[in-house]
Every structure is written in structure tokens, then in C-alpha cells.
Amino acid sequence: MFFMRLILASFLGVILLLPFFADAATVRIKDITDMEGVRSNQLIGYGLVVGLNGTGDRLTNSIFTRETLISMLNRLGVNIRNQETQLQTHDVAAVMVTADLPAFTHGGNRIDVTVSAAGDSSSLTGGTLLVTPLMAADGEVYAVAQGSLATNAFTARGAAASITRNVPTSGHITNGAVVEREVPFDLAHRHSLHLSLRNPDLTTASRIAAVINRTLGYIASVQDPRTVLINLTTNDPITTLARIGDLTVTPDSPAKVIIDEASGTIIMGADVRISTVAVSQGNLTVQVTETPEVSQPGPFSDGQTAIVPRTNINVDTGKNHHLTVLPTGATLRELVSGLNALGVGPRDMISILQAIKADGALQAELEMR
Fold this sequence. Notes:
Layout: H1 2-23, E1 27-28, E2 33-35, E3 41-50, H2 63-75, E4 93-101, E5 110-117, E6 128-135, E7 141-148, E8 154-157, E9 162-165, E10 170-179, E11 192-197, H3 202-216, E12 220-224, E13 227-231, H4 237-246, E14 248-249, E15 256-260, E16 265-268, E17 273-274, E18 277-279, E19 285-290, E20 293-295, E21 306-308, E22 311-316, E23 324-326, H5 332-341, H6 346-359, E24 362-363, E25 365-368
Parallel strand pairs: 15-25
Antiparallel strand pairs: 1-14, 2-11, 3-4, 3-6, 4-5, 5-10, 6-7, 7-10, 8-9, 11-13, 12-13, 15-16, 17-24, 18-23, 19-22, 20-21
InterPro entries: Flag_FlgI
Main location: other
Subunit structure: The basal body constitutes a major portion of the flagellar organelle and consists of four rings (L,P,S, and M) mounted on a central rod.
């Protein structure tokens, strides 16, 4: 009987603690930080797509496509530059090829590429990208792309209507480029490394350093709200970084309200608080509707058909919109509930939040976009 009571008490204690654990959302350090120097590099190239079904560039309009095609044919031993015949093909398109070279990618690895039309081509569906060197910002070639495109788009046309699904002038080639040059980064012999927070916050950086020092010894120190320095001189760098990445912390975030006036979007963080403030919303609205009617004379009469105006006027004084008082320290849920009780939409809510901030009652950063 004693053991049954003990088990029941433990079970109830776990249930009572569940809400506290639910509120404290923890994340892994590797999910909110980046390692210094470990990043991808952007690549770009210019090439030709062939095999299009009459949807390529018009060579009379896209001069760069015509010159590129002539130069490529000359390199392949086909000399048409001095010929009097005019190129009329519509199955070739000039394209820009882009790709990301991930960190720790070695020669011979394959990466995905994106192909986008550069001329007046209407569709790249069914095309094949010819050999295209991909260069980085330093002008060096790091990969070479070639392969068949997949656009996941289609176009259907008729005499009086057409339909296009997705974007037929942009395609993708999975594993379409072979890496020829790698970006060296010696992670195994680093003596120190910086962890960069994706959302800079001094509290979060301090928590990261604290959990690392508590688990692995004093090897972490906070440099600024974005940077945590890791000392790797006394430990194996790879093993240490792997263990650090799996450690969990509870990130902190500043109280912020983000407003996008163009789309009417409002985003408020969980820590947004307001001081005591009274809010009322409602304007005088006058709606005038004209619905003219046609008056016809009786049969066999000398009357004339006339249009008789009819006007409907509705006035909304906002009498159903009441003054709402939000108490000191109101939470995000109370703030939203209070504004929804007034029957306001996103546009009106933006004006109310701006007015609350101007009054000094909104204890959060207001960011307009």
C-alpha cells in the first residue's frame, strides 16, 4: 500500500510539472548557431540550353544568344560566322546557371544547379544544358554543369485562351554539376572557433557558454551578443564540436512587434507587455448606394419609359464598439483578445498598436516594414 501511494504521488508530481517543461522550449545549440568559416559559396555561370521545342530565344532579338551559339559551333569545328545564311533556330536559349557550393565539398562531388532563362525564351521544358563552367567571386572555376532540365511546369494554349502552371523559364538539375575545385577549411586542427548566433541575444549567448562550460569544462566565453568563443586547444576539435552541437539551451528573445503595412501582417512575440491603457475603435461610416429603377407606362398609353433614381443611405456610428481597458502587464494573449473584442481588423490593429507605442504603453520594440 505504501508503494502504491508513492507511485501515485510521483505520477501526480510529474503531471504537475509538465506545464513548466512545456513552457521552457529547449533547442540544440547547432540549430541556433553557425560555425565561423563553415559556409557555402555562391557560383554562377552562363551557358546554352538546347533541344527546346520552338520555345527558345529569337536570335534576331537576343543577339547574345546568337553570338554564343556561333562561338560554340566554331569551337566545335563548325564555321558559320562568315556564311551569308541567317540563323533561324528557335530551339536554343541563353541561360544563367547558379549553384551553392556547400562547405567541406571535395573534388568529384556533385551539387544541384538552377537554370534560368536570360533571353526571351518562353519555356525551358525539355531542354538540355550544355557544358557550363561555374565561377565564384574570385573568378576561378569551381564546378562544371551539364544535364537535362526539370521545370515542373507546363503551358497549354488555344485559339482564345492559355494556361501556365509554375514557371517554365526556370529549371533545376539535380546533381547537375561536378565539383572541380574545393574550398579548403582545416577544422580538425583549429585551436579556437567562434559560434555565431543566428538571432543575436546576450542572454542566449550567456546560456550557451554556461551549458558548454558546465558540460565540457571552461572552454567557452561570450565575445558579444552574436559570438561565443570556443577554446579547442585541450580537446579533440571534432569530438568537442559534435558534443557542443547536441547540448540544449532555452533561447531568449526580445519583446518585439513586427508590422508589415503592405500586407497587413502583424507578428508579436510572447514577451510583449503593455501598461494600463484604454482602447476604443470605431469611426463614422456613411454608405450611399444608388439602385436606379426603370418605370414603364401602361399598355396603349401615351407615357414614356423613364429611369427613376433610388438612393439607400446607411450610417454606422460605431455604437457597438466599446472602450476596452487593458491592465498593466497584459500579456500577448490578453492584448490580442482585447483588440479582437473591439472587432478590429489587421489594418485598424496596426493603427492601434502604433498609437499605443506613441503613448509609451507598449513595452516592446515596434518594427515597421
